[in-house]
Design the sequence.
């Protein structure tokens, strides 16, 4: 069962990365890895930096890799020094988000994988689940709500 989630998450990572590369204005070389993920396992295994820093690319206005001292990693688009456009954020806790960002917050379509392997795929507004979305538990059961507001499920109409 968990293999399905790993495949779906890896597929989502690859799809977002392909979309980002196809819409990039830059002619810089791709940061794609051989396994198709946005953040490679090598990048994930690197020790945390001694200070929060951009370790590659342009983390001001462009695409880059930013690492925090707590072990979190973001790879994707930036605007005015904030996460913007398409990118992937990996928390040290094991949670991951791949999708759209605006002004440093999850905003637009994305996939959030929780450390316990639950998954939400859908719309985010201002860093919260908002709009159409599907919450799938690790055991593959699906939450009945398909609409979300301020991070909370709306009850389906009866």
Sequence:
């Amino acid at each position: 069962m968990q293999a399905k989630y790993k495949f779906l998450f890896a597929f989502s990572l690859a799809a977002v990365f392909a979309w980002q590369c196809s819409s990039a204005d830059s002619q810089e070389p791709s940061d794609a890895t051989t396994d198709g993920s946005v953040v490679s396992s090598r990048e994930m295994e690197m020790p945390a930096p001694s200070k929060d820093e951009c370790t590659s690319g342009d983390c001001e206005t462009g695409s880059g890799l930013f690492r925090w001292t707590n072990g979190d990693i973001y790879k994707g688009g930036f605007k005015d020094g904030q996460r913007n456009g398409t990118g992937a954020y990996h928390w040290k806790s094991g949670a991951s988000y791949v999708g759209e960002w605006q002004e440093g917050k999850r905003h637009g379509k994305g996939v959030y994988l929780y450390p316990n392997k639950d998954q939400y795929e859908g719309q985010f507004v201002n860093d919260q689940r908002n709009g159409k979305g599907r919450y799938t538990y690790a055991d593959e059961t699906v939450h009945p709500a398909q609409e979300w507001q301020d991070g909370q499920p709306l009850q389906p109409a009866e």
Notes: Confidence is low (pLDDT under 50) at residues 5-37.
